[in-house]
Amino acid sequence: MTGRIDIVSIFPGYLAPLELSLVGKARQDGLLDVTVHDLRDWTSDRHRTVDDTPFGGGAGMVMRPDVWGHALDEVLGEQDTPAGQSLLIPTPAGERFTQAMAEELALQVCAGGQLAIACGRYEGIDARVAEHYAEQEHVTVREVSIGDYVLNGGEVAALVITEAVARLLPGVIGNPQSLVEESHGSAGLLEYPVYTKPPSWRGLEVPEVLRSGDHGRIGTWRRSRAVERTARRRPDLLVRHAPPQVRLAKGVD
Ligand code: 6GU
């Protein structure tokens, strides 16, 4: 059984890349059901208004809870699934979106559940929307950020989340082994550097060990490059996978 992903946005055209490449192919093959909705379809005034000025003052506009309520009641209401529903609200003020979260969501979608993504613009969505849907029995609400920088809206995050989840669904990736060794997987290390033909290019050589055919040495070399790369670029990941004594000393937990 396969569940669905629904994305609500005032710029549905922003989600057009979901028709391309791996996700596009998965949709065509019926492995994944993604629907993009225009939030303005749930407005009722002539100007199709979705926002208003913030209570308490301040710059920018806030998205109205009534419009979002109509949209999400309909999008979440279509589904009655024992696998449950997740409502993701992308925001730079959210908890960090991780591979672990992508895996959790993929399992839910795979089991017939629903993932809905509510893309805010402007200064964000009235906080009562997250609060209201969190009170619904079958809905888990998560406000998520894709990294420490500020985007103009949730659409790019929705693309990121959808791709991260979709590629974990059975049949979407041709060779499941490629899911096993990659960065941020279970080993907790960044991926080792990779090479292909030609063996010599612009005076740069492919490391000899990779051409040796000695799979023991190749494995050792790759692990050590992965650790070295991780230590340089993401020392925080090494600490996270360190033994309990180190974690305790560094106050990771
Ligand atoms: Cl999810 N939204 C916006 N607007 N900015 C972000 C983000 C999300 N994650 C990082 N920056």
Automatic annotation (TrEMBL):
Keyword 4Fe-4S: no
Function: Specifically methylates guanosine-37 in various tRNAs.
Assembly: Homodimer.
Signal peptide feature range: none
UniProt-recorded name of the protein: tRNA (guanine-N(1)-)-methyltransferase
Gene: trmD
EC identifiers of the protein: 2.1.1.228
GO cellular component: cytosol
Top-tier EC class: transferase
Keyword entries, A-Z: Cytoplasm, Methyltransferase, S-adenosyl-L-methionine, Transferase, tRNA processing
Subcellular location(s) of the protein: Cytoplasm
Residues included from the entire protein: 1 to 253 of 430
Reactions catalysed, as given in the entry: guanosine(37) in tRNA + S-adenosyl-L-methionine = N(1)-methylguanosine(37) in tRNA + S-adenosyl-L-homocysteine + H(+)
GO molecular function: acyltransferase activity, transferring groups other than amino-acyl groups; tRNA (guanine(37)-N1)-methyltransferase activity
Binding site for S-adenosyl-L-methionine: 120, 146-151
Family according to the record: Belongs to the RNA methyltransferase TrmD family.
Source species: Ruania alba
Example of a GO biological process term: tRNA N1-guanine methylation
